[in-house]
Amino acid sequence: MHAALPRLLLTPGEPAGIGPELAVRLAHTDMAADLVACADPDLLRRAATRLGLPLHLSDADDQALGARARGRLRVLPVALAQQETPGHLDVRNAAYVLETLARASDACRAGHYAALVTGPVHKGIINDAGIPFTGHTEFFAARTAADVLMLLAGPHLRIALATTHLPLAAVPAAITPERLRRVLGVLWRGLQRDFGMPAPRIAVLGLNPHAGENGHLGREEIDIIIPTLDTLRGAGMHLLGPLPADTAFTPAARARYDAVLAMYHDQALPVLKAEAFDTGVNITLGLPYVRTSVDHGTALDIAGHNRAEVNSLLSAARMALQLSARRAQAA
């Protein structure tokens, strides 16, 4: 008799993007997991038809699976407001996307699933529908009232962000001692809990070029970052920096740390995406459940053309299994 497969809950994201196709392709891998999609079943059927792949759907229930055949996917149904047209956004489906996220978050928080894996959403169309939305990370943080942090991980690099989706002009004012203490605390505990590192080594990037160059290129390092790091080192954290971003990713530098805290979105993510675009995973640290995501967008230009690659979603699902297994072992 087979042991029960871990249950992964999947939200395909924007219905006009490649997410539904990726969900079908994931179902056709040999992943040893009970895959459940929180989505409109007809949306998934249409995606499978466009891909020319068979798809066997069944309702999600509490019955444990010991094995899963390729092409099998269980569904936690949410109805689309309007049938999708691949590649063409429709504001009428914005509320549908958020409903899938809300239901998935609540189900995982209730302990019904081992982890949540999310496909790409389109922030712009959700905002165009009159719904304030800045991203998955912020949505799940508000839904669970959790203190969270975005961590992007590739096979050989982990990068967390002190600020996420902010205009560049707003970043300096957001780098405060309180924020740095909070995000470094979440990162420290997340690396311990989810990655099994008793004493993680964290490299902290400076905000300014050359980490401020002793105040000649900005004083944020001197006035904010260095004093905060010194305080946290006194509390037992192993912190390097602030390091200049332009040399922090050399092989010699990377041998000294387990993860990086960048000050803003585009300071470090181009490095990770250049190195691991197809295998990068977005992880939300600090949630009461494991959540991972693809590290790419909706790819509207190729949606419906049978060109989407499943590698990033597959990496996210595999990472979700690893992290949930580690949490289960530590419980």
Structural class: alpha/beta
| Stretches with pLDDT under 50, minimum 5 residues | none
CATH superfamily of the largest domain: Isopropylmalate Dehydrogenase
Into how many domains do the coordinates divide?
2
Quickly name the level 1 CATH class of the largest domain: Alpha Beta
Q: Strand portion, in percent?
A: 15-25%
Helix content: 25-40%
Total strand count, please? 12
Q: N-to-C terminal Cα separation, in Å?
A: 25 Å
CATH fold naming of the largest domain: Isopropylmalate Dehydrogenase
Spatial arrangement of strands, main beta sheet = 3-4-2-1-5-12-11-6-7-10-8-9
| SSE ordering | EHEHEEHEHHEEHHEHEHEHEEH
Radius of gyration: 20 Å
Q: Residue-averaged pLDDT, rounded?
A: 95
Count of individual helical segments: 11
Biggest sheet features: 12 strands, mixed
CATH architecture designation of the largest domain: 3-Layer(aba) Sandwich
